[in-house]
Amino acid sequence: MSSFSVLMYHAIPLEIRAGADLDFDPHYAVTVADFTRQMEFISKQQKLGSKIAGRSASANEVYITFDDGHLTNYTQAFPVLQACGFTAEFYINTATVGTAGYVSWDQLREMHQAGMAIESHGHDHVLMNELSEDAVRLQLQQSYDLIKQEIGSSPIVFSPPGGRMHPAMQHLVPEIGFQYVAYSKPGVWDGGNRFIPRYPVLANSNEQFEAAVLQNFKFRLKTKVRHDVMGLAKKVLGNSGYERLRATLLAKRQET
Ligand SMILES: [Zn+2]
């Protein structure tokens, strides 16, 4: 059976300075220098950076995805991808497109023209696990319609904000016209399942990155255990309690 690595990126800034007034989450950001090295690593492994939408499903494809539509996706990541001859997939929040720090529709159209896929991360960045079914439907439908209208091509992949799932997504996703849900559960994708696990590429994680591309077993196990623990915390504590726990854990890590 085939198995594909699907990488999940967020902002790709020039640098991540401690204590700076950042407009992105530093834990999830990868500097453009690290990102460039990572794309070169994929190339050297004789693999091709690609997108899920319109994929060729060649065994050598590594799928590259970006959540949130941060402006650096256009200014930093896009030129690197083009230089490598790669395509990738960008999950945007249609409500934040064109606002400070985020990509504009013109930039997204340019990326789409160059072969990139523009996909949905919902309308706002609202966490959907605590929404009503109608509210989830509205988030999906609004983002689907706006992308179709602005890009001229319908999205086929949906990435839930914060990786938060809602049971109704199972039927809403195909009803609205999406084919896949790219979520935040780590693992490899078999190429067929509607729900696509992804490896989050984090700041200072070059070693883990290489293991993820090569589908190293130990890495799979480690990320799965961490994800299961955090998933349980999300369930028990709810969205706001979970964010407080995560902030405490991150602060602790920086102290030590
Ligand atoms: Zn997000």
Detailed description of the structure:
With 256 residues, the chain is α/β, with parallel strands linked by helices. The protein contains seven helices and nine strands. The protein has two domains: 6-215, Glycoside hydrolase/deacetylase (TIM Barrel, Alpha-Beta Barrel), CATH 3.20.20; 217-256. The protein has helices spanning 32-44, 71-84, 105-113, 133-151, 169-176, 206-214, 217-255; strands at residues 6-9, 48-50, 61-67, 89-92, 117-120, 157-158, 180-182, 195-196, 199-200. The strands form two sheets. Strands 1, 2, 3, 4, 5 and 9 form a six-stranded parallel beta sheet that branches. Strand 6 (157-158), helix 5 and strand 7 (180-182) form a beta-alpha-beta unit. The radius of gyration is 17 Å and the shape is globular.
Can you tag this structure with a few keywords?
6-stranded parallel beta sheet, 43% helix, globular, single chain, TIM Barrel, binds zinc ion, 3-stranded parallel beta sheet, alpha/beta, 256 residues, 2 domains
Number of strands: 9
Query: Which CATH class of the largest domain is shown?
Result: Alpha Beta
| Largest sheet composition | 6 strands, parallel
- CATH homologous superfamily descriptor of the largest domain: Glycoside hydrolase/deacetylase
H/E series: EHEEHEHEHEHEEEHH
Shape: globular
Examine the coordinates and then state which fold CATH places here, giving the name of the CATH topology of the largest domain.
TIM Barrel
Ranges where pLDDT stays below 50 over 5 or more residues in a row are none
What small-molecule ligands were found?
A: zinc ion
- Which CATH architecture of the largest domain? Alpha-Beta Barrel
The average pLDDT score comes to: 89
Helix content: 40-55%
Distance between the termini: 42 Å
Radius of gyration over all CA atoms, rounded: 17 Å
Name the beta content range.
Answer: 5-15%
Overall number of structural domains: 2
Based on secondary structure, the structural category is alpha/beta
Number of helices: 7
